[in-house]
Amino acid sequence: MIHKTSIIDKKAKKTILTSTARELKIPLSDVIALGDGANDIDMLKAAGLGIGYKPQEIVKSFSQTNIQHTDLQTVLYFQGYKEKDFIY
After folding, report:
1. CB-based burial of residue 48 (10 Å sphere; 0-12 exposed, 13-18 middle, 19+ buried)?
2. Would you tell me how many other CB atoms lie within 10 Å of the CB of residue 46?
3. Is 52 helix (H, G, I), strand (E, B) or coil?
4. Residue 7 pLDDT
5. What share of the chain is helix, strand, coil (3-state, %, to 5)?
6. pTM for the whole structure
7. pLDDT digits (tens, 9 = 90+) for 15-31
8. What is the largest CA-CA distance in the chain?
9. Going by C-beta distance under 8 Å and a sequence separation of 6 or more, which residues neighbour residue 66?
């Protein structure tokens, strides 16, 4: 288990993503990953949908889409939810 204050490098991020998906029996094609920095690129590329969240320039070319101006609620739209489905 990774301690909350551990620094996680790019290799560990991808490993955690793939091993968690495998443990939960979720195909990587159904996984969404969000990242903002260069150390997130491998994880973003491994996920079915890699989203750059207010990303550094280098991340933009490796993520499939980017969220630049809105909040994380936007990810729900990528999952197919509509605003009428939200509970405020």
Report:
1. middle
2. 17
3. strand
4. 77
5. 45, 15, 45
6. 0.86
7. 999 999 999 999 999 99
8. 38
9. 51, 52, 53, 55, 59, 60
State how far the Cα of 85 lies from the Cα of 55, in Å rounded to an integer: 27
**74 vs 4, 65, 66, CA distance in Å?**
26, 11, 10
First and final C-alpha spacing in the chain: 34
Q: Residue holding tokens 């509970």? A: 87
Extract the residue ranges of the chain whose pLDDT is less than 50: none
Q: Which residues contact 61 (CB under 8 A, 6 or more apart)?
A: none
- Which residues 6+ apart lie within 8 Å of 5 measured at CB? none
